[in-house]
Specification:
This protein is α/β, with parallel strands linked by helices. The protein is 20% helix and 32% strand. It is globular. The N and C termini lie far apart (60 Å).
């Protein structure tokens, strides 16, 4: 037998974006807000990251991932949101009707609005097509942190970390917590992708990590457990074998977009997440999206602020607001890989934090932004922060001032 529930808002995903949206919406006691999370405990990825650095922008604090996750849950429940864990959304029963499987049985959820906040995941070894043996001891960061922080299991003693992003240093800290030394961090880029403070700390005696730039893993060696990896220098072609009993594959994110795709929601071909406007509406009426499902991957506090931003859009939707049909695509040119949000709609407010979010494949230390539409230059500006691979590049949304919402696509490039 299927139980039917009819909340005002159903939020799929109990991470920073989903929980922040829930807390904001449920503060209005006239709204019934339901959060559906497939995990046994809500909180999202921060729950696995037992090191400080969370809550800076949204909570104005500096706390560990698990503490941050608990505060998000407490805020949502205190506001009045209902959080159902072990609740897996298995499909759609209509345009705004969800089939959910729970330990208590099947549930049909029929809300007035839906928020997709399912986040993103790292690509595993199989998706990266790394050849070699198939030994134990190869993890993504998420698998490693789940193993160490939630299940308190041991890993190896000497690790190689693939990637130089913020999440890569998170993996290094988790390995240190587990008593495993990171012997090498390898990245294909000419410089580590993370912020300079992390690179300095990583090379210090505290962590002692050697960072090999312009390198890649070409082979995994060992049976039944990994004993080493073959590393190739991309400039010289020279290959060397590094001894290790643990390999952590970090970054290379892809959105958890299966629900959006199965609903026929239009996806952005660059991000592979739902295509949204600055109000975070998807192509399906009454279905919104927020967080790292849209921009894989940004910090947890930025995802949370997405949740706060989408809450206001949902309130307007529930009040009967009809968005303008006049809209244009926002696109980008190489070396920029993607931009989010991807639609500028007439009459809508600016995106969250008044920022467009982009990803670059090339380090540009002094980026000069040029915005064009129909052969016209709408804006030129030089930003005082670099466009760096491995972390989101932020551009003030004021560059969109002057957009003709009845015109052709808007293109953002590095001049």
């Amino acid at each position: 037998m299927t139980t039917v529930v009819t909340p005002d808002v159903a939020i799929i995903g109990g991470g920073p974006a989903g929980l922040t949206a829930a807390a904001d919406l449920a503060a209005d006691r006239s709204l019934n807000v339901l959060v559906l999370d497939r995990e046994s405990v809500a909180g999202g990825i921060p729950r696995h990251c037992d090191h400080p650095g969370y809550g800076i922008r949204d909570m104005k604090t500096f706390i560990s991932g698990p503490t941050y996750a608990r505060r998000l849950v407490d805020k949502a429940t205190t506001a009045g949101a209902q959080i159902r864990t072990n609740a897996t959304v298995t499909g759609w029963a209509g345009d705004r009707s969800l089939d959910v499987t729970t330990p208590q049985g099947r549930v049909r959820v029929e809300p007035r609005a839906i928020v997709l906040a399912t986040g993103a995941r790292e690509r595993p070894r199989t998706a990266r097509l790394i050849p070699g043996d198939r030994p134990a001891g190869v993890y993504t960061t998420g698998q490693l942190q789940n193993l160490v922080h939630l299940h308190h299991r041991e890993v190896g003693r000497r690790a190689v970390v693939v990637g130089g992003e913020l999440v890569s240093w998170s993996a290094v800290l988790t390995l240190k917590h587990a008593g495993c030394r990171t012997a090498l961090m390898t990245t294909t880029y000419p410089s580590p992708e993370s912020y300079g403070v992390f690179n300095i700390a990583g090379r210090s005696p505290i962590l002692g990590v050697d960072v090999a730039t312009r390198t890649r893993v070409t082979r995994i060696i060992g049976k039944p457990r990994i004993t080493g990896v073959e590393i190739e220098n991309l400039d010289t072609g020279v290959r060397t074998v590094v001894d290790c009993d643990t390999l952590v594959l970090t970054g290379d994110w892809i959105p958890d977009h299966e629900l959006a795709r199965s609903a026929g929601i239009e996806l952005d071909p660059k991000t592979q997440g739902p295509l949204v406007d600055t109000a975070l509406r998807t192509s399906a009426d009454g279905v919104f999206a927020a967080g790292n499902l849209l921009h894989p991957v940004d910090t947890a506090d930025i995802a949370a602020l997405d949740g706060r931003h989408v809450a206001e859009s949902i309130r307007r939707h529930l009040a009967g607001h009809v968005p303008s049909a006049a809209s244009v695509r926002i696109e980008c040119e190489a070396p920029l890989r993607w931009i989010a949000p991807g639609i500028a709609r007439q009459g809508d407010a600016a995106p969250a934090r008044n920022r467009l979010l982009l990803w670059t494949d090339t380090l540009v230390r002094v980026p000069k932004i040029v915005v064009r539409q129909d052969g016209r230059v709408l804006a030129r500006t030089t930003l005082p922060w670099p466009a760096s691979p491995g972390r989101v590049f932020r551009v003030p949304s004021t560059v969109l001032k002057g957009v003709d919402h009845h015109g052709g696509p808007v293109t953002v490039s590095l001049g």
